[in-house]
Task: inverse folding
């Protein structure tokens, strides 16, 4: 999952080869400075900018552009460097905006080389500043972290570099501006877009205003823009992996780290005012040569393109399907936000018209008042019907896409009733993500979007065995507990099936021994690290071993001595399933459990709790941090998941094995056989 930072927040970095991607509404300059332990830049040779874009372990863009991709190899930086600051500035004397308050808020994201986001930050609140320190990558106790800074300077680059202790700040700022002006003078205008690109864009019908895009994409009627959104006037390449081809076409070349120069990627023009609105997420569009007319004629205007599985950006089909699924989620979120906003507007307008018409006492009685009510209600019904028609149109398109995408999903993304499990083989590599269930909204009962979470897990899971907030939930507490444990076993089996042999280990704590029936598939197949722990002694033993493992791995990582770990240490990812908490737990065990939830994910130890929150309330505020650190899931449909972008309450449906199906036993048998072969 991506950490969405606010000003001053930091986030650990688990990899040293990174990219910092920048998106802005207008061409801006991107650079970086290296500083020592006191935060001081020692000289101009510690500044990477368009005139000198490459330093050891660092490469920036060569000219101003609306989007940038800065490359970092933190291990290649000099030992004396303790901080790397990412700088953004508006070009001086280019005839464009002179302050950040006049442009869309820049968006920066720290990503892996595969494009997976680690952390992101939107630089809001800027006004008269023309230069800003966006992010800092800094060392802390031998590990690297990223901090959202957002410190702006009205005096531009000269003031910024002076603040970082560079004596030659004004001279260097002048040379940077000169290099940027030279690069802009040499830039070549982008060619006009091809008709085939427009045909391939997933557009809704051209009637009426489109839904807003709360999660990602163009700003809608509500004006809400999330940190991951593409704002108006912020053009995006059709694919982040097409940058190298675009750079080659325009004479760009790769730098010292072998990455394309994003500054050479020309940006497409913004759509003309009054034209049809493209509702699709920019990262899901792809530009490809048009097919031969006799085989696949162009889609007639006004008719949506036929959905295709994998129609998104990515290196592999798995990545393209992952991006497509999340694009569908975003499409559904924004089209539903537009519908609800339109209905709210219709309700508000009807109330205002009725208040205005009936404010005069003379019009409250008689035909004039009745006519005003009927006219207001008729307008209300017309607006609601128009909004519903637009929603039905978008839902039909998303449903058609879901029907194509679902059969193409690999086992890690597929439902348990998918035929793909019949051809399951233990993988050689860990997939990008894992399916934990499905999500839908009340107005789209027939359309469900797979809920995918990235691997490795960044937070534990809490399977709530308590009552659901939906009225049709099971009333029998014992049946709910059994169903919650069945869901936990299904999630654990999927995690085992998604990892190569020997790369994932599962431990179980069942202090009272009440989950024997649900645990039977795991126990009988032999995929557990050992028998389920029972009693207080078993709980203490498992928790002590796992906390000791976390301590050892953390010390080895921080000390740079990974080869000094004990030879018998299990290096696989660890999952601890805790059933019927807090039975069998004392205060020490609860503290160890909280420690595993907080520190375990960073070193490959994950937690899955199966418990009723109300029953565990006896521990009071001691457990609040534990519950907050875990992702709550339910064994029955429940509308407890909410997105932070538009506030939708999503109904979650767990991914359970169909009754009577043997798919779980078959998959676990293959996992167990692969582990036996691997251990020989």
Result:
């Amino acid at each position: 999952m991506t950490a969405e930072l606010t000003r001053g927040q930091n986030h650990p970095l688990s990899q040293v080869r990174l990219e910092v991607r920048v998106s802005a509404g207008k061409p801006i300059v991107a650079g970086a400075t290296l500083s020592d332990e006191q935060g001081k830049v020692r000289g101009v040779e510690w500044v990477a900018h368009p005139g000198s874009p490459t330093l050891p372990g660092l490469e920036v863009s060569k000219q101003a552009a609306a989007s940038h991709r800065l490359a970092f190899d933190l291990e290649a930086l000099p030992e004396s460097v303790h901080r790397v600051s990412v700088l953004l500035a508006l070009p001086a004397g280019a005839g464009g905006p002179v302050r950040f308050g006049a442009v869309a808020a820049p968006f920066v994201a720290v990503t892996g080389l595969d494009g997976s986001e680690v952390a992101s930050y939107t630089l809001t609140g800027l006004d008269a500043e023309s230069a800003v320190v966006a992010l800092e990558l800094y060392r802390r106790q031998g590990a690297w972290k990223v901090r959202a800074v957002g410190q702006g300077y009205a005096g531009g680059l000269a003031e910024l570099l002076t603040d970082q202790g560079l004596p030659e700040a004004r001279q260097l700022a002048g040379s940077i501006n000169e290099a940027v002006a030279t690069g802009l003078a040499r830039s070549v205008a982008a060619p006009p877009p091809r008709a085939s690109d427009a045909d391939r864009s997933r557009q809704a019908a051209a009637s009426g205003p489109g839904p807003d895009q709360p999660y990602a994409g163009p700003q809608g009627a509500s004006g809400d823009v999330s940190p991951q959104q593409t704002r108006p006037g912020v053009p995006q390449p059709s694919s982040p992996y097409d940058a190298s081809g675009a750079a080659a076409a325009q004479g760009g070349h790769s730098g010292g780290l072998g990455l394309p120069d994003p500054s050479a990627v020309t940006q497409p023009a913004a759509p003309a005012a009054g034209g049809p609105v493209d509702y699709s997420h920019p990262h899901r569009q792809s530009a490809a040569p048009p097919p031969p007319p006799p085989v696949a004629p162009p889609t007639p205007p006004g008719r949506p393109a036929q959905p295709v599985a994998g129609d998104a950006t990515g290196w592999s089909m798995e990545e393209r399907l992952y991006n497509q699924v999340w694009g569908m989620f975003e499409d559904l979120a924004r089209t539903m936000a537009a519908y609800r906003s339109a209905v709210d507007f219709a309700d508000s307008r009807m109330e205002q018209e009725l208040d205005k018409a009936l404010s005069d006492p003379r019009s409250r009685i008689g035909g004039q008042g009745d006519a005003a009510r009927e006219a207001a209600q008729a307008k209300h019904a017309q607006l609601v019907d128009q909004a519903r028609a637009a929603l039905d149109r978008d839902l039909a398109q998303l449903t058609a896409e879901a029907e194509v995408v679902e059969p193409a999903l690999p086992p890690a993304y597929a439902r348990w009733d998918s035929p793909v499990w019949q051809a399951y083989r233990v993988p050689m590599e860990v997939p990008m993500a894992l399916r934990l269930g499905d999500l839908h909204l009340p107005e789209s009962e027939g359309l469900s979007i797979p809920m995918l979470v990235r691997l490795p897990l960044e937070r534990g899971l809490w399977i709530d065995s308590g009552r659901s907030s939906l009225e049709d939930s099971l009333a029998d507490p014992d049946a709910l507990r059994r169903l919650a444990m069945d869901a936990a076993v299904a999630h654990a089996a999927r995690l085992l099936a998604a990892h190569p042999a020997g790369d994932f280990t599962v431990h179980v704590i069942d202090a009272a021994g009440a989950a024997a029936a649900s645990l039977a598939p795991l126990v009988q197949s032999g995929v557990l690290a050992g028998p389920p722990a029972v009693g207080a002694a078993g709980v203490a033993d498992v928790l002590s071993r796992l906390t000791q493992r976390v301590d050892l791995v953390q010390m080895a990582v921080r000390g740079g001595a990974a080869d000094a770990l004990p030879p018998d240490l299990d290096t696989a990812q660890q999952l601890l399933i805790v059933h019927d908490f807090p039975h069998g737990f004392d205060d020490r065990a609860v503290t160890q459990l909280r420690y595993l939830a907080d520190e375990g994910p960073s070193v490959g130890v994950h937690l899955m709790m199966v418990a009723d929150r109300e029953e565990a309330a006896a521990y009071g505020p001691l457990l609040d941090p534990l519950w907050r650190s875990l992702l709550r899931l339910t064994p029955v449909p429940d509308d407890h998941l909410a997105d932070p972008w538009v506030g939708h309450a999503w109904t979650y449906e767990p991914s359970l094995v169909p009754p009577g199906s043997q798919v779980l036993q078959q998959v676990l048998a293959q996992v167990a056989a692969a582990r036996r072969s691997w251990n020989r």
